[in-house]
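Annex B. Sample input.
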Amino acid sequence: MPGAGGNFEINVSGLVRTLNTTGENLGKAAQDGAKEIAREWKRGSRDEAPIDTGQLRRDISEKLNAGSGANVEIEMASNTHNGGFNYAYYQHEVRGNNYLDTVAEENEDKWRKHLEGKLEAAAKKAGW
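Annex B, continued. Sample output.
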């Protein structure tokens, strides 16, 4: 039995390794999940966009802004110009055909659950 003031050591290297791995895994999972969501959002928006010549559907684009760790932002844009006339703006703002917004609103819960699942799996993979 150690006397009062005895010394002891605790090895926390496994915990430190798990913590370091967790951040890496969560960041990668967030970026992978965001890429999947962006592709689905783009596909859905193309299906919802009005079709005349098809140019509006072809001009929908996505951009993934990945910061450090799990900081990820998706930008979805639709810009179709014809001789100075912004057809995408006209469809969205004047006609009220919110094909980008509609798809996002309809899928918000599904995408949130998908991303949560990716993050949970990444945490488990890291050892939690």
